Automatic annotation (TrEMBL):
PROSITE patterns: BI1
Compartments (UniProt record): Membrane
Name of protein: Transmembrane BAX inhibitor motif-containing protein 6
Pfam families: Bax1-I
A GO term for molecular function: calcium channel activity
Entry similarity comment: Belongs to the BI1 family.
Keyword Membrane: yes
Topology term for the membrane: Multi-pass membrane protein
Species annotation: Anolis carolinensis
GO biological process: cellular response to unfolded protein; endoplasmic reticulum calcium ion homeostasis; IRE1-mediated unfolded protein response; negative regulation of apoptotic signaling pathway; negative regulation of calcium ion transport into cytosol; negative regulation of endoplasmic reticulum stress-induced intrinsic apoptotic signaling pathway; negative regulation of hypoxia-induced intrinsic apoptotic signaling pathway; negative regulation of immunoglobulin production
Amino acid sequence: MGWRGRDEAEGVEAVYARDTYGSLRNGSSCSCGGEKSLRSSSASTQQHLKKVYASFALCMFLAAAGAYINVVTQLVQFGLLTGLGALGLMIWLMATPHSRETEEKRLGMLAGFAFLTGVNLGPLLEMCIAINPSIIPTAFMGTAVIFSCFSLSALYAKRRAYLYLGGVLFSGLFLMLFFSLINIFAGSTWLFTVNLYIGLMVMCGFVLFDTQLIIEKAENGDKDYIWHCVDLFLDFVNIFRELMVILGMNENKKKKEK
């Protein structure tokens, strides 16, 4: 998740800089008042959000196709190549400026990235199928409910209400990395489980944070709906992955107790 840092930190910085200027100019302590994120946003921002979520739906379809093809054709043997391919497409997408001229090209990159992300879920999906096939639909439905609830909360909360979470969430990511490094040597199941639940909470927080940050970026003129879609897509995929692992571990525990 290191790629998030610079891009989102700059976005938050720009938003707060604008708010500070607005407060000083209007002689108030806060320029946002009780405005709701979605209701108070401009028509262009609402149109932008429609594009973001339409692109997100496309990503979900392509990721599902990639995951299915992997499970059926056993592309997992090329896991390293598909992983590097997804990373390369994401970096290429991030490095390509958003414009009308590059829009189709960047949509193609997004499609490839989403497909390969689905392919890379193959090994985890196969593990869940081996334990209990019902884990996958349960995890997906759980992820859909979590993502929808947190997205709606961010959309209808006060403007910029969740942007303060940025520091906490990035600290959570570093804590997860720290625990993961320790567990390489400790090999503790307990620490691994704790890290999973921390990861789930952090990813849920990122849904709130990213949704409101997308709105504020759009209000400030950043209409790169393709990259904004990547943020939400990765949030969904990471929550789905965490839930599958948690459910898989719980199912294994139940089998051992029988």
